[in-house]
Amino acid sequence: MHANVLRVGTLSAVLLSSFALAQEMPRGSFLLGPVQSRYQLIEQIQTDPEVSARYERYFRMTHEELVQYFSTLQTSTTEERRTFRVWYTRPNTEVQEVKSLMLRRGEPVFVDRQGTVVLRLKCGNPMVERTVARTYYNTYVASPPMTQVVTTTTTSRPQRFVIAPIGPLVTQNNLTWEDAAATVILAQATQQTPDQVITLRTTDLASTSFMDLAPAVLMSWSGSRPLADVYSLYTSGTPWVDLATQTTLAPTYWNTSLVPTSSWTNTDFTSNMWQSLLFNNLFVPTSEISWFGTQNIPLEQQLVASVIGREFNLPVRDVLAAYNAANGNWATVENNFLATPPVRVYYRTGG
After folding, report:
1. Is-above-0.85 flag for pTM?
2. From start to end of the chain, where are the E strands?
3. 196-242 per-position pLDDT tens digit
4. Angle (CA) 175 177 180, round 5°
5. What is the tens place of the pLDDT at every residue in 42-62?
6. Cα-atom radius of gyration of the chain, to the nearest Å?
7. Environment class of residue 15 by beta-carbon count within 10 Å: exposed (0-12), middle (13-18) or buried (19+)?
8. Residues near 266 by Cβ (< 8 Å), separated by ≥ 6?
9. d(CA 184, CA 190)
C-alpha cells in the first residue's frame, strides 16, 4: 500500500484558466466539470448526485463523510516526475479502474493536511488508496471536533455537522444572536470552540462586536499576533487587505476566486471573507450565497440563518422564512425547530 506524499504548496500559478473551464473533461473523469479550488470541488459533490455517488462508491464513505474529508484538502503540485496510480470511472457504468500514469513535476493536485496526494485536479480522479483515505479520515477528521456539537438520537440527518443550539451562547455570554453566530463560524474556521473565540475579546475590545472583529480574529490566529494589536492597526488606518498580507492569512479565507484586490475597500474584504467562511465552514451553497445578494438579505441575517440552517440541516432561505414568520425573533425560530426538529438535509442537493 503506497501513499503519494509531497509537501503542501500553493497553486496560484497553475490554477485553471477561463479557457480551460470551457474544455471537455478527460475521459473517465470523476468530475463533470473543471474545478479550481476545494470550494468548487465540494460544491460539485453537493449539487450533483452522480459526482457524489462516484466518490462515495470509491472511498466507501457516506456523502456527509465525503464532504468532511474533502473540506480538509487543499491545492498543491507534485514535486517530481514519477508514476502515480490514478482511479477512473467508466462511462455509463459503476465500474472503476486504476491506471499507472507518469505525471510531470508540477502536476496540479489536491492534497490532505498530511501532504498525501488525494485527487488529480484536472479531473478529480482519486490518487490515493481508499484504505489510506479511511485511515486519514478516522484519525484527522472523525475525531471529536473542537466546535460544539450536539448528540442526537435521530437517524434522519447526519450528526457530525449538527452545531449545538446558539441560544445558550447568547444568554450565557450576553451576546447578540448575530455575534453568537459569528463566534460559531469563526470557531469552525480556526478549529476552536465558540467559548475560546469569545475569550479572545479582551476588555479594551468589549464594545466591539465579533462581526466587526472577525477579520482581526482570523489574522490574529493566522499570524500568531494578539487580537488587540491587529485590530489596532486596522483602526489606525491599515486596510484589511494589507493586514491579511502582513499576517499571511490564506486567500481561501477571504479571496477564494483569487481576483485582483487593488481596488477593494474594507467592506469588499469583509463581504468576501464572510462568503468564504459560510461556504467553506458551514457548506452554504453558492446558489444560496448568490440568493442573499439578489434578495438584499442583511449580512447579520445571513450569518444567523446559516448557523441555524447548519444546526438543523435546513436550506438557509427556509430558516429566513421562519425568521420572518416569527416577526424577526431568532429565539423563537430556534426554539420552534428544537421543539419539532426538521429532517431535511440541505447540502445534499445544494439547496
Report:
1. no
2. 74-77, 82-89, 96-103, 108-111, 117-120
3. 899 988 888 989 999 999 999 999 988 888 999 999 999 999 999 99
4. 60
5. 878 888 889 999 999 999 999
6. 21
7. middle
8. 234, 239, 240
9. 10
Sheet strands side by side (includes 117-120): 74-77, 108-111, 117-120
Residue type at position 7: R
pLDDT tens per residue across span 244-277: 999 988 887 898 777 789 899 999 999 999 998 9
DSSP string, 293-350: HHTT--HHHHHHHHHHHHHHT--HHHHHHHHHHTTS-HHHHHHHHHHS-----GGGTT
Residue 288 has which C-alpha cell? Answer: 444560496
DSSP labels, 222-244:
HHT--HHHHHHHHHTT--HHHHH
DSSP state letter for 252: G
Helix (H, G, I), strand (E, B) or coil at 134: helix
Q: Is 196:100 a contact under the CB 8 Å cutoff?
A: no
Lookup result for grid cell 490564506: 250
Instruction: Find out whether 47 and 349 touch, Cβ atoms under 8 Å.
Output: yes
Would you give the end-to-end CA distance of the chain in angstroms? 39
pLDDT, position 234? 97
pLDDT at position 16 over 50: no
pLDDT score at 218: 95
Number of Cβ within 10 Å of residue 160's Cβ equals 13
Say whether pLDDT at 341 is over 80.
no
DSSP 239: -
